[in-house]
Structures are given as C-alpha cells and as structure tokens.
Amino acid sequence: MTNQPIPVPVANAMIQEYIHLIGTQTDDMSKQTQSVSFIKKDVLPWMNEVMQYADELRVCMGVYPPGHEQGGRLTVILWPYKDGQPASWPKEEGKAGDDPGGLIHPYNDGQGRP
User: Fold this and answer.
1) Which letter, b or e, does each residue of 76-106 get, where b requires 16 or more Cβ atoms within 10 Å of its Cβ?
2) How is the chain split into domains, by residue range?
3) Distance in Å from the first CA to the final CA of the chain
4) Banded model confidence at residue 100, pLDDT cuts 50, 70, 90
5) Which residues contact residue 22 at a Cβ distance below 8 angstroms, ignoring those fewer than 6 apart?
6) Distance from the CA of 55 to the CA of which of 2, 33, 44, 86 falls in 20 to 30 A?
7) What are φ and ψ of residue 23, in 5° steps?
8) CB-CB contact of 74 with 51 (8 Å)
C-alpha cells in the first residue's frame, strides 16, 4: 500500500498500534507524541516553494535534543529529496541559506500532540 491513499480504518489501526507500542514503554502517554500537526497556512508556502525542486518528500522521525523546550519528544521532519539525495536550490536561485552546499532546509515546526 505504498505511495497511495489508504483506507481510514487502516490508518486508524496503524495509529492505535503505535499508541499501544509506546504505551507499553511508558506509564504517562500524555508526555508521549502521538501525532504531529502542521498548520496549512504555515507549511503550504514552504512546500509550494521547495517541492518544485524535489521528486520526493521524506517524513523522517526525530527526537528533540536535551535542553530543547520539547526535549526527548518524538517529532517528524519534512525533508525534500531529489534523485535519492537531499534536494538543493537551483544555482540560479542562490538560496543557500545557512547551508553552503545550497541544500533546501528540512521543515519541522509542527505541534506535537498531546
């Protein structure tokens, strides 16, 4: 079932399996990430800008580092890829940002839930 929509009951079952798995490892599920949401008005402009230079959007799992306000919590990182590698800005765009290699920076400004 990869690279296609899946039925809502299948998605719900997969989510419940995740919650069950994490629940076996901790007593307090209120401190565990069960989902990460992105506000459309915030993420859509970024996606519209970067996905024209990518052929894949990877959703990578990550954990906030110690000292971060959400330290230790699970998160997701939206990372545009092209030809199996992190996507880059075209040379004429000149949008290298903080990356001297011109790589498009991944996106992670989602809200962990609960």
Assistant:
1) bebbbeeeeebbbbeeeeeeeeeeeeebbbb
2) 1-32, 36-113
3) 28
4) low
5) 29, 32, 34
6) 33
7) -65, -25
8) no
Q: E-strand spans in 38-87?
A: 56-63, 74-82, 85-86
SS3 29: helix
Integer Cα distance of 65 and 63 in angstroms? 6
Residue type (1 letter), 113: R
For residues 68 and 2, what is the distance between their CA atoms, to the nearest angstrom? 34
Residue that has been written with the tokens 């998605």 in this structure: 11
**Cβ pair 86, 107 in contact under 8 A:** no
Q: What is the pTM of this model?
A: 0.77
Structure tokens at 110: 């989602």
What is the number of other CB atoms lying within 10 angstroms of the CB of residue 71?
Answer: 10
Most confident of 54-63, 86-95, 105-114: 54-63
For residue 38, count CB atoms less than 10 angstroms from its CB and return exposed for 0-12, middle for 13-18, buried for 19 or more.
Answer: middle
